[in-house]
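BUG-255 | component: ligand-complex export | severity: low

The export step for S-adenosylmethionine jobs runs without errors, but we want the raw record kept on the ticket for reference. Input record follows.
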Amino acid sequence: MHRVYFIGAGPGDPELLTLQGARLLAGCRAVFAPTPYEVTFASFLEGKTVEIPFAFYFQELLDRIGELLAVGDVAFLVPGDLTFYSPFQALVDALGDRAAVIPGVGTANAASARLKKTLDLPGVCNRAIITSPRTLGDGEGAPTLRELAAPGVTLLIYMNNLPLPELVRQLRDGYGGNVPLVLAHRLGLPGEELIRGTLDDIVGKTGGRDYFNLGSPTRRPALTLVLVGETLEATVDGAWWDFRRKHIWEERDEG
Ligand SMILES: C[S@@+](CC[C@H](N)C(=O)[O-])C[C@H]1O[C@@H](n2cnc3c(N)ncnc32)[C@H](O)[C@@H]1O
């Protein structure tokens, strides 16, 4: 039975494809690659049938997958991977046993690495929340970022659709003061930018540039991840390491 592999492709740089993803991709005759993956992964796609998944309505897409499966394995390059904010769940469900999901490097992982910061830190941050104002909704009674933001929280905000001054206003209400914020734009892609600032100065640092495509006639979310919280600027000494060494890892006389 031929299969459809939903391969976590990472944020865009093919160097972040896993070895398993690369091996399975090599064995597929047809690949659905959302823009810009058909460009950034071009060297992996030579000789294959390449299609853009969002050019199809759902049933058309299932029909097309059916045609392609008759002659070989099929791959979808999944931005980041399926874990968060992936539009491919309905396909995975419809394909049942024919679908296989391959993990990849999520945008959150790539951002953490780029910043060289763990996104929780004992004594600084005790929880991280992954969210998007787009999926929180904007109806009456819908929760707001204001309600999620709080001291001790690192927020990872995907697909932001709030104007930056409004986003900052909501976050300041929640945090109750100024905290570090980073706009991670086009991670792992040409034009990558990291704009580091705080709630107080980030609007000025963007120089009015629209990092969220809010002024664009299309409703397509921009490739910008917003990270907020004290952990982005915090540093630690070795005290926690030594605490763990002493209380968890030190050889003990079990008798
Ligand atoms: C539909 S979600 C896909 C998330 C993906 N499943 C993941 O695990 O990273 C799209 C959102 O992810 C973030 N994103 C995806 N790729 C990105 C990149 N290369 N750089 C920065 N943010 C990115 C942006 O917030 C964008 O609006």
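Assignee comment: Attached the raw record above. The first helix runs from residue 19 to 26.
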